[in-house]
Write a structure and sequence with these properties.
single chain, 20 helices
């Protein structure tokens, strides 16, 4: 099978998965595995790869995401324990005193927490810091969890431009310059993006307010797997541990700080946190078993989805199909439009983010487009900046980014609902950042 056919097969695979997810035909895990299996069968039957090679690709893809799956399992358990013991109730009450019933204030606070949480450049840790802290407040005020996710991903997309963030480092390595030098060039666009993220929180806070959200709201909101309305007050009282409030608060803060500053796998941090939390709050094997079982369904569902996404990424990325997809896309740029390459790729970045994982986007598509731009005298840095800034806006709505599943799982939101709610808004944010880059002279045609 030639490169063009492989690219077309890749596009068909990605589009099939997106359609299945958006039309709610099946759960994400089955969509990823089912479509990937069909693609694998085609590749083997056409003699493109052997069964062993495809097996190796899949194993490599799963290996790339297994740490995220482990992270989700133990983070869900840890924050579930903290919710059971009543830690978040005390914190929420304190937050509510600060912002009262101000729905807009809660939305803006969400944005600020996400920005601070993303200073380490890690999408998973930001979701783990922001969503468990803010989701109970959203429930209390009857604000939609999809709004929480939209505000989070907008703030994270802007902060992900920091020089130690993955996309900026990848772009700089392709350009052969220091990540800090690239960041200094794009900093004005990031500043505009921060303002847009805060405006996003303000606007969507007002949207929620107009819908009737508030402390005495009668709105009925579906909180999915995160909904705890089925837990009786008696059960809450049985599991509450108010006498250990300060112990649990310190433990939670230590876990969060360790995520940012301690260079060990994040899932290991949560494993240790879970051990301490269970021993302190629920001594005895019987009670510990009960607590673990009560949170197992959410952890198993999302961990299986993340591992299934690894199968999908292994089939397309490890086989090189995503690179062929990048080459095909680049070939469609008309010669007469060559000097407008940064604008073209900037406008298309958000839709492309749904098709390409981070590595294939920057290591596959970017070098090809730089070569195309060279023929028209386009500065490679300008192409890279357009790609990294505009693409970053949509990083955490993409179904080919494992951290996205962590976010939707924590918020109890279906990924199709997250994409539907966020896509066009995020696309607009991306284009606003691109326009700011043109007006501020960061990108020159």
């Amino acid at each position: 099978m030639n490169e063009t056919m492989l690219a077309l097969l890749g596009f068909a695979t990605v589009i099939a998965i997106i359609v299945l997810l958006l039309r709610n035909v099946t759960v994400p895990a089955l969509a990823f595995v089912g479509v990937s299996t069909v693609t694998t069968a085609i590749l083997v039957l056409t003699g493109t790869f052997t069964i062993k090679e495809m097996g190796d690709f899949i194993a490599a893809g799963v290996a790339d995401v297994h740490s995220t799956a482990a992270l989700f399992i133990f983070s869900v358990l840890f924050f579930g324990i903290m919710n059971d013991v009543g830690l978040f109730d005390r914190i929420i009450n304190a937050l509510m005193k600060k912002v009262g019933t101000n729905v807009v204030g809660v939305a803006v606070m969400t944005c600020i927490i996400a920005m601070i949480g993303h200073l380490d450049g890690g999408g998973a840790s930001t979701f783990l810091i922001t969503i468990p802290a803010m989701l109970p407040v959203y429930k209390r005020l009857k604000m939609r969890p999809t709004t929480l996710l939209l505000i989070c991903v907008t703030a994270m997309g802007v902060m992900n431009l920091l020089p130690w963030g993955g996309p900026t480092m990848r772009s700089a390595s392709v350009l052969g310059i220091e990540a800090n030098d690239l960041w200094i060039q794009l900093m004005p666009m990031q500043a505009v993006g921060i303002v847009i993220a805060l405006v996003t929180a303000f606007v969507w806070g007002n949207i929620e307010k107009r819908r009737g959200a508030g402390v005495n709201s009668t709105l009925v909101i579906d909180y999915g797997d995160s909904d705890d309305t089925g837990v009786s007050q008696e059960q809450k009282n049985e599991l509450a541990r108010p006498q250990f409030f300060w112990v649990n608060l310190i433990l939670t803060l230590v876990v969060i700080l360790a995520l940012v500053f301690v260079k060990i796998p994040s899932y290991c941090t949560f494993m240790i946190g879970c051990v301490i939390a269970l021993f302190v709050n629920y001594p005895g094997a019987k009670m510990q078993n009960k607590i673990i079982k009560s949170h197992s369904s959410t952890g198993l569902m999302m961990a299986s989805t993340i591992l299934a996404a690894g199968v999908f990424l292994g089939v397309l990325e490890q086989s090189g199909i995503m690179n062929h997809m990048a080459n095909v896309l680049a070939s469609f740029i008309p010669t007469s439009m060559g000097r407008f390459l940064p604008i073209i790729i900037g406008v298309l970045s958000v839709p492309l983010t749904l098709l390409f994982c981070t590595d294939s986007y920057f290591y596959g598509l970017l070098p090809v487009l730089i070569s195309v731009g060279d023929a028209f005298g386009v500065d490679p840095a300008h192409t890279a900046i357009a790609m990294v800034v505009c693409r970053n806006c949509a990083t955490f709505i993409s179904p080919v980014v494992p951290a996205t599943f962590l976010g939707v799982g924590l918020a109890g939101v279906e990924i199709k609902d997250h994409i539907k709610n966020s896509f066009f808004w995020i696309w607009g944010v991306s284009i606003c950042c691109l326009i700011s880059g043109l007006l501020l002279g960061v990108i020159v045609l």
